[in-house]
Amino acid sequence: MKKGQLIVLRTTRRPTPQEWDELCRQAVVLREENFTYEEIAKKLGVHKGSVPAQLKKRGLWKSESKSIKEWDRLCKQVVILREQGISYTKISEKLNVNSTTMQLQLKKRNLWKVAPTWRSKEEWTELCKEAVILREQGLSYSIISKRLGVNISSMKSQLKKRKLIETDYFEQTSKEWDEICKEAVCLREQGCSYVAIANNLKVPSNSVQFQLKKRGLWNVRYRSTEELDEICKQAVLLCEEGLSYSEIEQRFNLPRKSLLGSLKKRGLWNGVSEEERQKAAREKWDGLCQAAVVLHKEGIGYPEIAKQLGCNESSLGKELKKRNLWRGISYEQKREEWDELCKQAVVLKKQGHGYKEISGLLGCQDSGLYIQLEKRGLLEADFLENNQKKWDELCKEAVILREEGWLYKEIAQKFGYKSTSILCKQLKRRGLWKGESRAESKEKWDKLCQQAAIIRKEHRFSYTQIALQLNCSNATLQQQLKKRGLYRKFHKDIKQEDYT
Prior knowledge:
Shape: extended
Helix content: 55-70%
CATH topology of the domain at 3-57: Arc Repressor Mutant, subunit A
C-alpha cells in the first residue's frame, strides 16, 4: 500500500465509525504485509489498544500470539535462564518476547518465581543470629546488612524486637551526636552557615539540623539593623558590577527573602514589581491561548498543543478556561465515552479476556475500568466472589501477623500494598481491625498537648522542636493544639511575661 493512500489521524479526538471502517481495512492490508499491531497503530496515528478492539468488533482480528506448544518451549528456557540468576527483563530481550506476556505465560504454568519482598519470622531469627556473630567480630551494622542482603533499618528493628542489639550502641551514637552538636554550636557562633558546618564536620546537613533541634540548640542567626544597612550598601555596589541577587546572598550568607526584603525597605531594590510581573505573564498567556485556539481548530489535542507551545498542560487548560476559550470534553461526553467502553468491555469479557487485558485493549487504566463497571453493575459475580474470598484469606492472615507484633504497615507491604488504607478498610468491614479507638487517641493527644503547652511556655521552643522531643508529627501536633485552643503563635520579639 502506498503512503498516500493511508488515512493518518494525528489528533486526540475519537474517530467516527465510518473512519474506523476505512482504518480497519488498511490495518488488515498492513497485517498481511507482516506489520505488528503496534506498528500499524503508529502508521495510522491511533492508540495501539484501539486497533485490536475495533478489528474484533468487525471480526477482522488475527491473533499474533504464539501457540501453546511454542510458549511451553519458551517457558522451559526461561526457567533454566532464571536459575542462572538472569533477570526476567534480560531473558525477554534474549528470547525476543514481550516481558509482560512472558510473565503471564509463566504464571499460567505456575513457573513464575520472584524474590519475596518480605521475610518470615524464622528467616529473620536466623539472620539476626548471623548478625550478632558478625557484630562480635567487630563489623558495623551497615557492612553486616550488605553482607546479609537486607535493609539496615529493618535489620535493626528486628534485632531490637529480639533484644539482641546492644544498649550501648544507641548510647554511643547519642554521645557522638552530643559532641558533634557542641562543635556545631561553636562554629555557628563564629558565623558559619549550617551547610558549611556540615561540610566541616563531614556529616549530612539535614542530620545536623535535626539533631540540634532535638537538643533545643537550633539557632537561626538574626542580624542587627546596622549590619543589614551595611550589607545593603555593599549589595547595591555588587549589583552594579553585574552580580545576581543569588550570588550576593551566597556571599553574605543571607537568605534571599531577607536580602530582598531589606533592600525593598530601604528603597534600594531595582527589580521588577509584582504588578509588572503579572502583566508580563498575562500578555504571555494571551499569546499562548490564541495560538492554542488556532491549533485546536486544526484538530490537535490539548496535550499535544501544550508540548508544541512548551507550556504545562494543566496551566494551559486553566488559562483557556479563564478566557472562555476551553473546548475540551465535557462531563456528559466523558460519561458517554465510558458507557461505550463498558459495553465493549462486557463483550470482550464474554470472549474470555481478563479485565487487565481488556483495559490494555481499550487503552484505559484497569482501576478506572473496575470503578466504572462497578458503578454500572456490570462486574461479573464470579469476579466479586473471588475478590471477597481473597480478602477473607488475607484478613485472617493479617490477624495472625498482628498478634505476632507486626505493624499494619509491615503487613500491607507483605501483601504487596504500598499504603495501609485498603487493608484497614477490609479489616474494618469484617470487624477484625485492632487499632487505637477514638477515646484512646483523644486521651493520648490530651496528654501530649498539655506537655507541649508547658514546653512552649517555659522554654519557648518552636513546635518542630517540641514535636521532635515528644516523638510525634509536627503537623498533627499543631492541629490537635488548635482543636483544644492551646496553639500559640511564636515570635522572637514576644517577651516571657507577655507569653501566655
